[in-house]
Description:
The structure is a single chain. The model has no long low-confidence stretch (mean pLDDT about 90). A hairpin with a 5-residue loop joins strand 2 (about 25-40) and strand 3. The chain is built from two helices and three strands. It is an alpha+beta fold. Helix content is about 20%, strand content about 35%. It has a single domain (about 1-65), classed as Ubiquitin-like (UB roll) (Roll).
Amino acid sequence: MKFDSCESCGGRVRERRVTVDLRRAARLYVFYHVPIGVCTKCGERYYPGPVLERLDELAEHGMNGGKKLSVPTFDFASVA
């Protein structure tokens, strides 16, 4: 993938493989090794359209073979 310079700081944007947390209603999906652009100066992330579409598709329709994680949740108002 080719990226332009960062719109926030003008730094160089390079392809990186990152972890993306995607929330849909009460569900959390975690995707590893997602190819996106990341500014080497400020860390701003740039998600190519086809990558976003694929993440949405996988979250919407599920994926076979995905691992399940157990994640603790807290209601801040009741524990603060």
